[in-house]
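Here's a chain:
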Amino acid sequence: MVDHVFTDLTLAALYDNLNPWGPGDDFYLGLVRQARSVLDIGCGTGRLLRKARAEGHQGRLMGLDPAAAMLVQARRARPDVEWVLGDTRVRCWEREFDLAVMTGHAFQELVGDEEIRSCLRAVRAALGADGRFVFETRNPDARAWERWSPDRVYEITDPDGAPVRVWHEVRQPLHRGRVRFTETYEGEGWPEPRVSHSVLRFLDRETLDGFLGEAGLAVVERYGDWDRGPVTPKAPEIITVARRA
C-alpha cells in the first residue's frame, strides 16, 4: 500500500489542487448520477460524492478512505454524505449498493494478491443483484512511470495561495508488476521538503480478469480512455465495468 503523505492535514488540503477535476471525474460522475446508492472506495477528499450531492443526488452516498486527513476535508465540505474511515477489510456490506467505484487509480494501491482478493470479495458482497463495480488502472503497456521524473515539476498553491512545488522520482521501475517511487512537496517557508514513498501495482488485463473471476465478478465493459475508446497498447487506462458473475 502507499505510505500515504496525505495522512498530513497540510498536504491533504493540497490534494484537489494537485489533481484537478478532469475527464475521469466526469466519467464517474455520470455513473453516480444514475445510481441510487454509491460506495466510493478510496474516496480521498470525497470530491466525486461531494459534487453529486451538490447537484442534488438524493440517494445514499458513502465514501471510504483509510486516511483520516483526507476525510477531514470531505466532512468539512459535505457533512450530508456518509464518510467512513478504513478500508474494505474493516467494514462489510451485503447487497447495499447499486454502484461501487475506485477512482484516481486507487485500485493500484492494492499491491499484494491477498489485498486484491480481499477487496474484490468485499465489493462483490456490497453490490446488489444488478450492481456495477467500476474502476481504472494504468495500462502497463503505456509505461506511464517512465514520465515520472524530477525534471517534471508541478506548481500548485496551498489554501493560503502560497506556491508549492511537486515532483516524482521512480526508485524502482517495473519489477514483478510493481513500481516504487517518491512524491516530493516543497513549499515556501517549509523547514524541509516532505516526501512520500509509494508503491503501485500495474496489472495487465489477463491478470486483472483472473482476480475478478476468482472473486465472482465478470467484466461487462472495458475501455482504454475516458472517451470509451478500446484498450490498445498505447491506451493510457484499463477502465473496467464489472458485475456479479
User: Anything to note?
Assistant: The domain at 5-139+203-244 is CATH 3.40.50.150 (Rossmann fold). Residues 18 and 156 are 6 Å apart (CA to CA). The mean pLDDT is 94. The chain has two domains: 5-139+203-244, 141-201.
